[in-house]
TrEMBL record:
<comment type="similarity">
    <text>Belongs to the MoeA family.</text>
</comment>
<keyword id="KW-0460">Magnesium</keyword>
<keyword id="KW-0808">Transferase</keyword>
<dbReference type="InterPro" id="IPR036425">
    <property type="entry name" value="MoaB/Mog-like_dom_sf"/>
</dbReference>
<feature type="domain" description="MoaB/Mog">
    <location>
        <begin position="184"/>
        <end position="320"/>
    </location>
</feature>
<dbReference type="GO" id="GO:0005737">
    <property type="term" value="C:cytoplasm"/>
</dbReference>
<dbReference type="Pfam" id="PF03454">
    <property type="entry name" value="MoeA_C"/>
</dbReference>
<comment type="pathway">
    <text>Cofactor biosynthesis; molybdopterin biosynthesis.</text>
</comment>
<keyword id="KW-0500">Molybdenum</keyword>
<dbReference type="Pfam" id="PF00994">
    <property type="entry name" value="MoCF_biosynth"/>
</dbReference>
<protein>
    <recommendedName>
        <fullName>molybdopterin molybdotransferase</fullName>
        <ecNumber>2.10.1.1</ecNumber>
    </recommendedName>
</protein>
<dbReference type="InterPro" id="IPR038987">
    <property type="entry name" value="MoeA-like"/>
</dbReference>
<dbReference type="GO" id="GO:0006777">
    <property type="term" value="P:Mo-molybdopterin cofactor biosynthetic process"/>
</dbReference>
<keyword id="KW-0479">Metal-binding</keyword>
<dbReference type="InterPro" id="IPR036135">
    <property type="entry name" value="MoeA_linker/N_sf"/>
</dbReference>
<dbReference type="GO" id="GO:0061599">
    <property type="term" value="F:molybdopterin molybdotransferase activity"/>
</dbReference>
<dbReference type="InterPro" id="IPR005111">
    <property type="entry name" value="MoeA_C_domain_IV"/>
</dbReference>
Length: 398
C-alpha cells in the first residue's frame, strides 16, 4: 500500500466538483427557518402595515377641521364612536366629526390624522381640539414600513431572527430554503477514545470527530458522528457503510501509507479512490473516493492537517450545497517573524492575528493548539522557501 499519486490541490477540487452534487431546495415552516439559507429572493406580498393605522391612542379626525384651532380658540368636534385595534371600521367620518381610536386600530374613511388623548379634552360627546393637526399626524400609512412588491430578502441569505421577523410580518407561513447536506463523521484509530472513557496508556482523546462534526454544524449542515472505528477492516467497513445512509462520509486518521492505514483499501474494495495524496502541507495524506455514488473523504489524522483539509476541501462543497455564496473571508496582515517553508509543497501555515500582525504557529500539525489558537492560515506557494518578517500576507480566516 502507498500513496497512489500526489496531486495538486486544484485537481482534488476538480474531483470534488465532478461528484456533481447540487443544492437541493425544500419548503419548511417559518418556525424552523432560523439559521437556514434562503433559496429564493423574497418580495413583499402585502403592504406593511396593511392599512393606515393610528400610532397613538386618541381621536381620529379630519386634519382640515383643526387648522384654525388654538389654545384661545379651540375647535369642537362631534365624537361619533370608538374604534379599537382589530376592529373593522364601519364609520365614515364627515366634516366636524371625530372618533375615538386606539393605537394600532385602522383609520376610518375620511379621517387623515389622530389627535393624542393627552392633547384634547372631552365634554359629553364633544371633542375640544387646541391645535392644528397636519395630514398623517399620528398615522402610519399602509405600506410605509414595507411596500407591496419590494424585494426584501435575497436568496443565499442565512436567516437571522431579524429575517424571520420580517417574513412573519409579511405573513409567510412557509419558506423555501436549501436542504442541509447530511454528513457522517468517523474517527479512526485504536488509540482514540472519547471523553468519559478512561485514559489508558497510549490512548488519546478524540479531537477530529468533535472538530469536524461541530465545524459542519457551524456551517449549517447536519453532522452525524458515528464514533470511532478500530484499525481493522471489519470495524472500518461497518462504520463506512453506516455512513453511506447520509450524503457523504468523512473519516479522519488512517489516511497515510502506514500498514494500519486501511481506509483507502476499503474504499477501493467497495467503490473508487480518485485521490490519495495532495501536494499540500499539512494535509498530504488525504483520500477522496466514492462508494455507491457517495463521496467519501479520508482526512489526515493529525488534527491541524485534518481541519485544514476540511476547510480547503469539504467546507467549500458544504457551502455550495447549503446555497451559501461568498468566498473565504480574507484579511491582509504583516508577518510577525521570518518563516521557512518546504519547497515543492504548497503550505498552509496556521497563524494567530495580533493587531496588524499575523503570528505563525509553529507547533506542527500534530498539535491541537495549532488550529485552536489559529485565526486562519496563510498560503505559501510551492516555489517560496522563505517569508520575511513584515511581509504582507493574506490570512484566510477559519
Ligand atoms: N510514511 C509516512 N508516514 C506519514 C506520512 C507520510 O507521508 N509518509 N505523513 C505524515 C503526515 S504529514 C500525517 S498528517 C500523518 C497522517 O496520517 P494518518 O492520516 O494515517 O493518521 P494516523 O496515523 O491515523 O494519525 C496521525 C496522528 O494523529 C492522531 N489522530 C488520529 N485521529 C485522531 C483523532 N480523531 N483525534 C485526535 N488525534 C488523532 C493519531 O493518534 C496520530 O498521532 O501521517 C504521517 N505519517
Ligand atoms: O500532511 Mo501532514 O498533514 O503534513 O501534517
Amino acid at each position: 500500500m502507498g500513496f497512489l499519486k500526489v496531486v495538486p490541490l486544484e485537481e482534488a477540487l476538480k474531483v470534488i466538483d465532478s461528484f456533481g452534487l447540487k443544492p437541493q431546495i425544500e419548503e419548511i415552516p417559518l418556525e424552523e427557518a432560523l439559521g437556514r439559507v434562503l433559496a429564493e429572493d423574497v418580495k413583499a406580498p402585502i403592504d406593511v402595515p396593511p392599512f393606515d393605522r393610528a400610532t397613538v391612542d386618541g381621536y381620529a379626525l379630519l386634519s382640515k377641521d383643526t387648522w384654525k384651532a388654538s389654545e384661545s380658540e379651540p375647535v369642537r368636534l362631534e365624537i361619533v364612536g370608538q374604534i379599537n385595534a382589530g376592529d373593522v371600521p364601519t364609520i365614515e367620518l364627515k366634516e366636524g366629526q371625530a372618533v375615538g381610536i386606539s393605537t394600532g386600530a385602522p383609520l376610518p374613511k375620511g379621517a387623515d390624522a389622530v389627535a393624542m388623548l393627552e392633547e384634547v379634552d372631552v365634554e359629553g360627546d364633544e371633542l375640544i381640539v387646541y391645535k392644528p393637526y397636519y395630514p398623517q399626524a399620528g398615522v402610519m400609512k399602509a405600506g410605509s414600513d414595507i411596500v407591496k412588491g419590494k424585494e426584501v430578502l435575497k436568496a443565499s441569505k442565512k436567516l437571522t431572527f431579524k429575517d424571520t421577523a420580517l417574513l412573519s410580518a409579511l405573513g409567510f407561513e412557509k419558506v423555501k430554503v436549501f436542504k442541509k447536506p447530511k454528513v457522517a463523521v468517523i474517527s479512526t484509530g485504536n488509540e482514540i477514545i472519547l471523553p468519559g472513557d478512561e485514559l489508558g496508556v497510549g490512548k488519546i482523546y478524540d479531537i477530529n470527530g468533535r472538530a469536524i462534526t461541530d465545524a459542519i454544524r457551524e456551517l449549517g449542515a447536519e453532522a452525524y458522528f458515528l464514533g470511532i472505528a478500530k484499525d481493522d477492516e471489519a470495524s472500518l467497513k461497518e462504520k463506512i457503510f453506516e455512513g453511506l445512509k447520509y450524503d457523504m462520509v468523512i473519516l479522519s486518521g488512517g489516511a497515510s501509507a502506514g500498514v494500519r492505514d486501511l481506509t483507502s483499501s476499503i474504499i477501493e474494495a467497495h467503490g473508487e479512490v480518485f485521490i490519495h495524496g495532495i501536494a499540500i502541507q499539512p494535509g498530504k495524506p488525504t483520500i477522496i473516493g466514492q462508494i455507491q455514488g457517495k463521496p467519501v473523504f479520508g482526512l489526515p489524522g493529525y488534527p491541524t492537517s485534518c481541519l485544514t483539509n476540511f476547510t480547503l476541501l469539504v467546507a467549500p462543497l458544504l457551502r455550495k450545497l447549503l446555497g451559501l455564496k461568498g468566498e473565504h473571508r480574507k484579511v491582509q496582515k504583516k508577518l510577525a517573524f521570518k518563516v521557512f517553508s518546504v519547497k515543492g509543497r504548497r503550505q498552509f501555515l496556521p497563524v494567530k492575528i495580533e493587531g496588524e500582525e499575523a503570528v505563525p504557529i509553529l507547533k506542527g500539525s500534530g498539535a491541537v493548539t495549532s488550529f485552536v489558537d489559529a485565526d486562519g492560515f496563510i498560503e505559501v506557494p510551492e516555489t517560496v522557501e522563505i517569508l520575511e518578517e513584515g511581509e504582507e500576507v493574506e490570512v484566510f480566516l477559519f
